Amino acid sequence: MMKKADIDEMLRTIEDETRYTRGMTGVPSLRPEVLAAMRQVPREEFVSNFYKTMAYDNTPLPIGNGQTISQPFIVALMTDLLRPDKDKVILEVGTGSGYQAAVLSLLVRQVYTLEIIPALAGVASARLKRLGYTNIEVSRGDGNSGWPEHAPFDGIIVTASAPHVPPVLKEQLKPGGRLVIPVGLTAMPQELLMLEKNDKGEIRTRHVLSVSFVPLTGNGGNDDTRKNNL
Prior knowledge:
The protein is of the alpha/beta class. The protein has a single domain, classed as Rossmann fold. The protein is 29% helix and 25% strand. The chain has a 7-stranded mixed sheet with strand order 5-4-3-6-7-8-9. It has a two-stranded antiparallel ribbon with strand order 1-2. Helix 1 crosses helix 3. About 3% of the residues have low confidence.
């Protein structure tokens, strides 16, 4: 069960870290609706029993298969950078536990999320359905290829570090849309980037913050390995 004190502490930590990093991120504060979504989603449902006592700590936690659930501050920051609203359709690359998708689902019309690891995709899909998130569609596949059937997207979020921004994801972004992605190799400092496409299709890139993510896997978008929806 969620403990109000734990959630309150998580939100205070998120707000403190937002203020501390505002000179780097350009985000002086998070929008109230983003914090409300972070409060509403039960993070303990997205971690294993072993880590439930740490569910609201501001730290990434293992979820199996060499993957992690991101620290709450990073989830909140990346969500805020997308500028979500109830009319938007978002693509997530890297479903993982499903936590980021759940947060987004409270803020946008539809979330499409791709996970390349079959075991994680299956568990996340079942978990999100059990918890009643009805505007999330999970599919197994290589996020480097995006999801052309539902493109273009109002926003795209990538929750693993890529060596470069996959060109297909830029193509699948609507004019006015934002793409938030960590870029860099695991042995080097990674940078969280925010790309914004203007009405002419031109891309402007902003460096947001140094981060550490697990690497994005897949074939770099050379073919479509997506499987049946879950």
